[in-house]
Amino acid sequence: MTSQVSSPAEQTDGTVVGEQRKPGGTKDVRRLDRVIIRFAGDSGDGMQLTGDRFTSETASFGNDLSTLPNFPAEIRAPAGTLPGVSSFQLHFADHDILTPGDAPNVLVAMNPAALKANIGDLPRGAEIIVNTDEFTKRALQKVGYAGDPLQDGSLDGYNLHPVPLTTLTVEALKEFDLSRKEAERSKNMFALGLLSWMYHRPTEGTEKFLKSKFAKKPEIAEANIAAFRAGWNFGETTEDFAVSYEVAPAAKAFPVGTYRNISGNLALAYGLIAASRQADLPLFLGSYPITPASDILHELSKHKNFGVRTFQAEDEIAGIGAALGAAFGGSLAVTTTSGPGVALKSETIGLAVSLELPLLVVDIQRGGPSTGLPTKTEQADLLQAMYGRNGEAPVPVVAPRTPGDCFDAALEAARIALTYRTPVMLLSDGYLANGSEPWRIPDLDELPDLRVQFASGPNHTLEDGTEVFWPYKRDPQTLARPWAIPGTPGLEHRVGGIEKQDGTGNISYDPANHDFMVRTRQAKVDGIDVPDAEVDDPDGARTLVLGWGSTYGPITAAVRRLRAAGESIAQVHLRHLNPFPRNLGTVLKGYDKVVIPEMNLGQLATLVRARYLVDAHSYNQVNGMPFKAEQLAAALKEAIDD
C-alpha cells in the first residue's frame, strides 16, 4: 500500500508521552505518540500474517513504523512448546522512529508458551491479551508453569485481558460449513480485528487481501473476514476494553513523496531489477534456496516481464557458477545466499576475481557458525566477505543500513561491479531482510545511469602494426578490463582460474607477472570511488560511535536519547567496508574514543584497528537478536563517562 506524506522532521525515539482523552462514542479514545505491539503464538497460529496485515494497514494510515519478525529456528517445533513460539513486533508512531522498539506496550499471547517466552520483555503496566482457551493444565505443564498465571496473581502488575479467542471465533463462524478445526484457524483474524479496533487501524485493505488470498476458496475468505469483523465488534462491545487508542499519521516525518511499506529482501529485489534496467542489461539470478535469502529468489521469479531470469540450482556452487557464466555472457549477474552458502561459493568468487567480471554476491547474514541459527540475525560474515578466499582475492563490500536502504545498496553494488569489472559482496542480514519500514518510491530520474559499453573490436596495436584484442588491457582510471561478449568476432580470449598475462590474458606462470597482477587487482579495489564518511557531530564531541549495516537504527536511536539527555556524542555509519571511505582515518583520529557496536565479536573493530592503528573499543552482541536502543545508550554513556 502507498500513502502520500509531506515535509521532514526528526524527533526523539523515546517513550510513550502525553496521553489525552476525548470522547469517542460510548468509549474513551486516548491519543498516543507511539505504540509497540507484539503478536506471539505457535508457528502455526499465523502470527507473521497477522503482524504483516497490521503493518500494512498501519503503513497505509501514514504512521512511521519498524518491524521485527522472529521465527522459530526449527522448521516445525512441537506445538505449544517454547522453541515453537513465533512472534511479530511492530513499532509505529506519529513521528520518525528507527527501531522495532525495546519493550512491547502490548502482547497478544495465543498460548502459555507465547506468554512465558515473551513476558520477560514487557514493562510493568503493559497490556496483555491472552487466549484463555489454550491455558489448559496440559499446555501449562508443557512449558513449565506450576500453576495458571492467569489466576495466581503473577500478572497483577500488567493490564491483563483474558479473551477466549478460539471459542469466540468458532461461535462467529458457526454459520459457515466448516469443521471446528477449520474455524479455529481463523482466530488470528479475530485477534487482528480486535487490535485493529483498539488502535483505529483501517480495515478495507485486510478484507481485500483476504478475498484475494483465498480467491479460489471464497467460503474460507468469507470466514476469515467474518472472524476479523467479529474481533472488531468484540472490542467495540465488550466491557473489558473500555479505551481505544489513536496514533496520528507521521505527516511531518518524511520528505514529500509516495511511500509504501517494504521489507529488506523485497527492497533488495527491486533494487536489482532497477539496476538491470538502468544498465540496460538482462538480470540473471543463479541461486539455491537458503534462509533468510530465499525471498529474493521468490520475488525476482515474478518479474520475467523486466527481463529477469531466475535459476534455482541444485546447490550453492552450481548457483554461483551459472551466475558467473551469465556475467561472462553479458548479463547483470547475481547470486543470493547466507553465510554457509558463501563458504561454498568461495572458490567461484575467487574465479570471478581472476576473470574480473561483474558479479553481485548477496549475503543475507544469519547466526553461525556452520548452519547455526537459520532464523536469527547476526553480522558475523564481514571477515569472510573480506578474506574468505584463497590467495589475494580482494572484493568490494557494501552493506545496507535499513530495510528500505537495501534498494539503494543494490544499485550501489551494481555500479561498482559494472564500472570496475569485479565481484561485489552485499552484506544484508536477517533483521533487515525480514523487517520492514516506509519507503519512498524514487522517481526514475533519481536513479543512476549504469549503462556500460561492451568491447566491440581490437583495442591494441602490436609493434608490427597489427591490431588485436587484449582482454586485460585496462581503463587507466578504473583499471577495469574490457567486457567482451562471447561470440563477438575477433574478441576470442581465454577464461579460467590460472593466472593470466597482463594485457593478453594468456596463461602465465611468470613470477613478476603474477606479482603485478595481484597488485593490480588490489589497486583496482583500493581505487574504487566511494563517498566520504558522513560525520554526525553537532557539538564537537570527543566520543565517536562507528557502525555498519543493520546496527544503524539502534545506534542512531541510542545517540538521539543521549543527546536529548544533554550528552555529546558523534556518529558515523559505514556503507562501504571495502574500500573504506578515504576520509575515515582522518575522522577516526579526530576523536578521543571510538566505540564500535557490532552483532559479532568485533570484526569491524579488528579491521579498523589494523588499518588505522586506532584504539577502537568493541561493544558486541551475538544472541541472534538486534541491539536494543536503551542497551546501547547505556553502553555509550559509560564510554563517554569513562
Automatic annotation (TrEMBL):
Listed Polar residues bias regions: 1-14
UniProt feature, compositional bias: Basic and acidic residues: 19-28
UniProt xrefs under Gene3D superfamilies: 3.40.50.920, 3.40.50.970, Pyruvate-ferredoxin oxidoreductase, PFOR, domain III
Keyword Transcription regulation: no
Domain Pyruvate/ketoisovalerate oxidoreductase catalytic per the UniProt entry, residue ranges: 44-231
Region annotation Disordered: where it falls in the sequence: 1-28
Keyword Ligase (UniProt): no
Domain Pyruvate flavodoxin/ferredoxin oxidoreductase pyrimidine binding: 284-498
SUPFAM superfamilies xrefs: Pyruvate-ferredoxin oxidoreductase, PFOR, domain III, Thiamin diphosphate-binding fold (THDP-binding), TK C-terminal domain-like
GO molecular function: oxidoreductase activity
Domain Pyruvate:ferredoxin oxidoreductase core: 541-623
EC number: 1.2.-.-
Keywords, comma-separated and alphabetical: Oxidoreductase
Pfam families (UniProt xref): PFOR_II (PF17147), POR (PF01558), POR_N (PF01855)
NCBIfam families: OAFO_sf (TIGR03710)
PANTHER family referenced in this protein's UniProt entry, alphabetically: 2-OXOGLUTARATE OXIDOREDUCTASE SUBUNIT KORA (PTHR32154:SF20), PYRUVATE-FLAVODOXIN OXIDOREDUCTASE-RELATED (PTHR32154)
Protein name in UniProt: 2-oxoglutarate oxidoreductase subunit KorA
Protein species of origin: Streptomyces cyanogenus
Lineage of source species: Bacteria, Bacillati, Actinomycetota, Actinomycetes, Kitasatosporales
